[in-house]
Amino acid sequence: MKKQTLSTINQLVAKGEKFTCLTAYDYTFSKLFNSCGVETLLVGDSLGMTVQGHNSTIPVTVADIAYHTRAVAQGNSTALIIADMPFMSFQTVEEALKNAGTLMQAGAEMVKLEGGAWLADTVTALGRNGVPCCIHMGLTPQSVNKFGGYKVQGRTLDAAEALVADAIALEKAGADFLLLECVPVAVAKKVTEAVSVPVIGIGAGPDTDGQVLVCYDMLGLNLDHNPRFVKNFMIDAPDMATAVQNYVAEVKSGAFPTEAHGYLS
Ligand code: KIV
Fold it and tell me: Partners of 81 in the beta sheet?
């Protein structure tokens, strides 16, 4: 696979081809995922739970993400690396620019921020400074305390319309990707159709342009909690490389995710 960039991903989406993303936190998994054809790697703040053992992503720092981004970048030659901006690392435009700079210098090629249309100025400022960004919408885990738990978002008509309006505003502000987590299948479809930038889904059904899973979840290593949108690809595979290749093949063919991996309302 040739080196993936913002333009190669946009070309895939323009051709109607689905693209893949997995979280990666270190050199070894980064190399493995490259060899299996995963187009984008997310150094997600889920590492706060999967690697550090916290019960949320809130304790994760910019230094933590920078450390893991450097490790992932060392193993990467083909994927586009997206790094998460942790909790409270982008509350002002100035903070966002400073912290995104740290992550880009660690090896990120795009940063991901959780939020909505209120991030428009931040998105524009990042873009002007050469930092591509992905906005994570729907169930944004950094707001778990505000949501009162990990709950599906966008379930009412008003909430669904707000997601669509936010997506349009963020595209206008210059967002390069959107990511939708745990929203009903029909809402994810509406958002994806409303914008021309690539939309990645997790727990958002089959209609987004790309799919992401936490790598430990799809490798059956999550002993704590398995949400319905997770598929354990190790069940039918003799080794991790085959499991990841099957994930890539199933996302490309549309076999994963099915509606059963999403929420109908
Ligand atoms: O941090 C992470 O792993 C994420 C995914 C759940 C999308 O944001």
Answer: 41
Biggest distance spanned by C-alpha atoms of the chain: 48
The best mutation among 21, 22, 23 to test binding of ligand 1, ranked by most ligand atoms within 8 Å of the C-beta, falls on 23
pTM higher than 0.90: yes
Local structure of 190: helix, strand or coil: helix
Does ligand 1 lie within 6 Å of residue 138's CB atom? no
Q: How far, in Å, CA of 230 to CA of 219, rounded? A: 10
pLDDT of residue 79: 98
Positions of the chain with pLDDT under 50: none
Q: Compute the radius of gyration of the chain from its Cα atoms.
A: 17
* Position 95, amino acid: E
pLDDT attached to residue 225: 76
Backbone angles phi, psi at 132, to 5 degrees: -65, 150
What beta strand segments (E) does the chain contain?
A: 19-23, 40-43, 80-84, 110-114, 133-138, 177-181, 199-202, 210-213
